[in-house]
Amino acid sequence: MNGPLPGELLLVGDDRLHVVEEGTGTPPVLLTSGLGGAWFDWNPVAELLRERHRVITFDRPGLGGSPPAGHRPAGLCAEADRLAGLARRTGEAVIVVAHSLAGFHAEAFARRYPELVEGLVLVDPSVEQDRPPHAWRLSRLAPAAGLAGRAIGMTGLARFAGPLIRGVVMRRITERGDVAPPEFSRAVYGRAHVLGTLLAENAAYRQLAADLLTLREAAPFPEVPLCVITALGDVRGDGREWRRAHADIAALSPYGRQIILPRTGHLVQIDRPEVIAEAVDRL
User: DSSP 3-state assignment of 157?
Assistant: First the structure.
């Protein structure tokens, strides 16, 4: 156990990660969160999958129940390596379910470690089709952003404001509101380093996108089942470009397909967990 939180702290590579496992079925399913997310955002999905799969949820360093890594945010290859380390613990190929920013990590994992991939479900994944200008310059802001967030947190503001802001935001952007037990939300978003990690990951976004475009030129996408879930509920306009961009990702695999949710917002794992569970089962 990690204090009051479920799960345990495991050494994966050079980092200690908070990992929560449920179920015993095969193939294993590895759930990975988007920017600033925590393991409990996947609770509705895990509840639907754990009777048929071994479900593994984890927090990147500095998020959820994982302690900070003590260095700048991991680059794209390091994030892929982290997924590989978690997959190897299962002893077999895994289905990776990745939300938003973590879609970059999952695609890099599939390209670098195809032997560990049973299939991918990308949940409203981030998209970059053109190389961002000056990505390396922006990525250099990541350590400074992390330090700024931790400095704010050390004032004690995060302890009270973090859980409050989390609750307000979740009620505004999801139909179900916050699915996290209040004690877990307080334990996570009241920590000084979580805000710093969130800001640092956001600052490193363009570098991750640029690195993925480079990786696409160097390593092929494996011929594995791939499902891309497109949420249009909070997309401005008619969402045509977002749908097309996700269709291009689905086309990376000859076994790729796309699910379009016209009235569902970005946090599909909370508002429509049954869609994700069905996508996993169809793989």
Answer: helix
Buried b / exposed e along 72-81 (16+ C-beta atoms within 10 A): bbbebebbbb
172-225 residue pLDDT tens: 888 887 888 888 888 888 887 888 888 888 888 999 999 999 999 999 999 999
Q: What are the structure tokens assigned to 47, written together?
A: 């509840």
Torsion of CA 75, 132, 122, 203, to 10 degrees: 50
Looking at residue 238, what is its pLDDT?
A: 87
Beta-ladder partners of 9: 18
Distances, alpha carbon 197 to alpha carbons 166, 223, 275, in Å: 15, 34, 30
Instruction: Give the residue among 200, 226, 225, 66 at the shortest CA–CA distance from 138.
Output: 200
Q: Are 18 and 65 in contact (CB under 8 A)?
A: yes
The Cα 9–Cα 82 span in angstroms is 14
Write the DSSP string, 159-216: HHHHHHHHHHHHHHH-SS---S-HHHHHHHHTSHHHHHHHHHHHHTHHHHHHHHHHHH
pTM over 0.85: yes
Radius of gyration of the chain (CA): 18
Q: Which of 268, 279, 264 is nearest to 99 (CA)?
A: 268
Give start and end residues of each alpha helix (H) in the chain.
43-49, 76-90, 102-112, 135-139, 142-154, 157-173, 182-189, 192-203, 205-218, 240-250, 268-271, 273-282
Residue recorded with tokens 């049973």: 118
128: its two tokens:
């970059």
Residues 39 and 57: their CA atoms lie apart, in Å, by 6
Most confident of 46-50, 70-74, 142-146, 155-159: 46-50
Instruction: Check whether 149 has a pLDDT greater than 60.
Output: no
SS3 228: strand
* Residue carrying structure tokens 């179920």: 23
Q: CA angle, corner 212, sides to 204 and 69, nearest 5? A: 40
